[in-house]
Write a structure and sequence with these properties.
Oligomer: single chain
Distance between the termini: 25 Å
Radius of gyration: 18 Å
Order of helices and strands: EEEHEEHEHHHHEHEHEEHHH
Structural class: alpha/beta
Number of helices: 11
Low-confidence stretches: 246-255
Largest sheet: 6 strands, mixed
Length: 255
């Protein structure tokens, strides 16, 4: 039976005079792919950064694996962060390092594994995300946008995390590449038993791979649930997302 992995309660976030979140609450269950949906400026990526402890909200609580991030010790925060992997929007690869070096950073820093074992593990992750073995020797500048995303995903998975955070994983990809990446995420989540939290504005991802999602708007969560549940919400932002031209077209070909 699934249990709550992430619980966000009454989170308030400000940047100076700018109020971004005004009492955000949501829950993420074990094993699901959970989406954070909303327009530009709705605070999706900000909330993700608070979940991975890059930002701290002004008030409220965020608990992950039962630990409250608002009063966690530095030591416990470091241990907790090893239980998740993160794919940032642009991949965030180090341009001066090869693919193998980028993927193996955490293994080299936080483990005492021999170099030969690390090399084997990197090759396993490269294969896992659907890339050929020779990519290991390339530099980021030699990769396509889709390959950069996959290398970033391999790096996020290298420590075998239980939880995976994805920030706009299909942004910048063409429709074919975006669909392939969506299916890769779905396959990995099912194969590895991952819990996935993905920030997205891509309706195709919502229709095809996301189990539940929250829609952020007006500084709050205006809807949360499965697609059919959220679509019944009469809020104007929901209608704009799912009853506009793109939403209608996708609904005719969705799951």
């Amino acid at each position: 039976m699934s249990h709550t992995v992430i619980k966000v309660s009454d989170v308030v976030t400000r940047f100076g005079e700018n109020l971004v979140h005004d009492g955000i609450s949501l829950t993420v269950q074990q094993g699901e792919i959970y989406g954070l949906l909303g327009g530009s400026g709705s605070g999706k990526s900000t909330l993700l950064k608070e979940m991975i402890m890059l930002l701290r909200p002004q008030s409220g609580q965020i608990s992950i694996f039962g630990q409250n991030l608002m009063d966690i010790s530095p030591h416990d925060a470091a241990v907790l962060s090893h239980q998740w992997g993160v794919l940032f929007q642009a991949g965030a690869l180090y341009s001066s390092l090869t693919v193998e070096e980028n993927i193996s950073i955490k293994l080299r820093e936080y483990s005492e594994l021999p170099k030969s074992i690390i090399k084997e593990m990197v090759q396993m992750k490269i294969a896992m995300v659907g890339l050929p073995a020779h990519v290991a020797e390339l530099y980021p500048a030699e990769l396509s946008g889709g390959m950069i995303k996959r290398v970033g995903l391999a790096r996020a998975l290298v420590m075998d995390p239980e939880l995976l955070f994805l920030d706009e994983p299909t942004s910048g990809l063409d429709p074919v590449g975006a669909e392939a990446f969506d299916h890769l995420i779905l396959e990995l989540s099912q194969t590895l038993g991952l819990t996935v939290v993905m920030v997205t504005h891509d309706l195709d991802s919502i229709w095809t791979i996301v189990d539940r999602f929250a829609v952020l708007g007006e500084k709050k969560v205006i809807a949360e649930g499965r697609l059919n549940e959220v679509k019944q919400n009469p809020h104007p932002i929901i209608k704009e997302f799912f009853c506009g031209a793109r939403g209608r077209i996708r609904s005719q070909h969705g799951k």
